Amino acid sequence: MEHRTEEEQVAALKQWWKDNGNSLMIGVGLALALVFGWKMYQQSVENTKNAASSLYQQLLEVALEPAENDESASTVEFIAKKLKTEFEDTEYATYSALFLAKSAIGKKDLEGAEAELQWILANNSDSSLIPLVKARLARVLDRQGEQQEALALLDAKDAGTYSALYLEVKGDIYYRAGDMDKAKQSYIEAYKAMKASDVQRPMLTLKMADLGISEEDA
């Protein structure tokens, strides 16, 4: 219905505000809360990443010191554990777990190294790291006498650019087990994959030579 007078229009507006004003204000308030809440969340994420990045930079500075000693190794381990526990949702936690796995291997703590690598597989979102982590885990499992579990990780079809690495690790596992025929075959396949992907694996040719395999054989 059209309102004929200005007074009627004002009265209608007042009535509309009375009926809908509270809902409108609540809607505006919620919209503003969402906007500011999202901005605060983004700022929090950025602050977290900056803090993790700074801490990881400290880790690298200590880890890359020319002369590593017990003190620097302990410092690296301390920072890595702090990053992993306090910044679990960042990529720096993954990198820290790799440092912790390396540290554990250096101490001959194979169970500790396995735990760190398994943690990465369970928590890491960067799929490009998975093949490298699986290769390292396979070596650790092999050293623990779990040959079949190690080999099960090394499916070259899932390795992408790491297929040569997977096949080389397979060869190493067979070599340690005394199965020289399978070791030779794996090294030859690794060599072919290396050539196809144009990556360099200098140790591979030495391992082949040790088993009497020439590059022409591959």
The largest sheet, given as strand count, sense and whether it forms a barrel, is: none
How far from one another are the termini?
91 Å
Mean pLDDT: 81
SSE order, one letter for each helix or strand = HHHHHHHHH
Shape, per Cα inertia axes:
elongated
Strand content: under 5%
Spatial extent as radius of gyration: 30 Å
Q: Give the % helix.
A: over 70%
Uncertain segments of ≥5 residues (pLDDT<50)?
none
Your description of this structure?
This protein has helices at residues 6-63, 70-86, 91-106, 110-123, 130-143, 147-152, 163-177, 180-197, 202-210. By secondary structure, it is mainly α. The chain has 2 domains: 7-123, no CATH class; 126-218, Alpha Horseshoe (Serine Threonine Protein Phosphatase 5, Tetratricopeptide repeat), CATH 1.25.40.
Summarize the topology.
Layout: H1 6-63, H2 70-86, H3 91-106, H4 110-123, H5 130-143, H6 147-152, H7 163-177, H8 180-197, H9 202-210
Helix pairs in contact: 1-2, 2-3, 3-4, 4-5, 5-7, 7-8, 8-9
What characteristics describe this protein?
218 residues; 2 domains; Serine Threonine Protein Phosphatase 5, Tetratricopeptide repeat; mainly alpha
Structure described in brief:
This protein has helices at residues 6-63, 70-86, 91-106, 110-123, 130-143, 147-152, 163-177, 180-197, 202-210. By secondary structure, it is an all-alpha fold.
